[in-house]
Design brief:
It is a single chain. The chain has about 230 residues and is mainly α. It has helices at about 5-10, 15-30, 40-60, 65-90, 90-110, 120-140, 145-170, 180-205, 215-230. The protein has one domain (about 5-230). Helix 2 runs antiparallel to helix 7 (about 145-170), helix 4 (about 65-90) runs antiparallel to helix 5 (about 90-110) and helix 5 (about 90-110) packs antiparallel against helix 6.
């Protein structure tokens, strides 16, 4: 059994609650779009769970065993990506699902780091890739605006939770009692996001029938600005 080489760095890793919620919310945003393969999503969820276990084992138990679990987890997620094509044989469905599936993994690597203190860049890139899946879904599937709004708001919320996990971890350390602060922050962000969904549905109802792509673009800009405000 080997201990972490840098205990200080290990203590300053992203907080568990916000980091876990960020991954779960982003994954939920992807699944809510309705594309891809249910089996592939289930396999990726298994891979993400193995990743979390592997990182924990690497940090607290055995580095070698933890590394082995992390490798297995990454292989499972890669297998889930391949399974989308195997299961659907549809290029459009694959293009819709795969960017988001990769995005969830990237964000997870940012908030559940095997080493280091997490990565805000990975959180942003991961969220952006899931947003790309939203755009592809909007163009290819043309789902109800509510589906796109909920997915987009969930992406912003996951981004915010991931940033909060890294920020609190760097400032206070993951051993500090931060659950109440994290819950208050998460609930506040979720409330703002819910208000954005309601406002978006209201604005869309005023416009012409059908898919209001222009309104959706404006709402996306507003949500990006909202995301920036949440981090100030």
């Amino acid at each position: 059994m080997s201990a972490p080489s840098d205990p200080v760095s290990a203590n300053l890793r992203p907080t568990r609650l916000s980091g876990s919620l960020a991954v779960a919310v982003l994954f939920g945003a992807l699944v809510s779009l309705g594309g891809g393969s249910t089996t592939a999503f289930a396999v990726e969820a298994l891979g993400l769970a193995l990743l979390a276990v592997g990182v924990t084992v690497r940090r607290d138990r055995s580095r070698a065993a933890g590394d082995a679990l992390v490798v297995v987890a990454l292989a499972v997620v890669l297998g889930a990506l391949a399974f989308v094509w195997i299961d659907t044989r549809d290029l459009l469905v694959t293009a819709q699902a795969v960017p988001g599936m990769v995005g969830v993994l990237v964000l997870a690597l940012g908030v559940i780091p095997a080493r280091g203190r997490g990565s805000r860049r990975l959180v942003k890139v991961g969220s952006g890739l899931v947003l790309l899946s939203v755009f592809v879904t909007a163009v290819v599937v043309k789902p109800p605006l509510q589906t796109l709004l909920v997915g987009t708001v969930a992406i912003v919320l996951a981004w915010d939770l991931g940033e909060n996990a890294i920020g609190l971890g760097a400032q206070l350390g993951r051993r500090a009692e931060t659950y109440r602060v994290e819950l208050a922050h998460g609930l506040g962000s979720a409330a703002v996001g819910a208000a954005a969904v309601v406002a978006g549905k209201t604005v869309a109802g005023v416009g012409t029938p059908g898919f209001p792509l222009g309104v959706f673009a404006v709402l996306l800009i507003g949500l990006v600005l909202l995301a920036g405000a949440l981090h100030e």
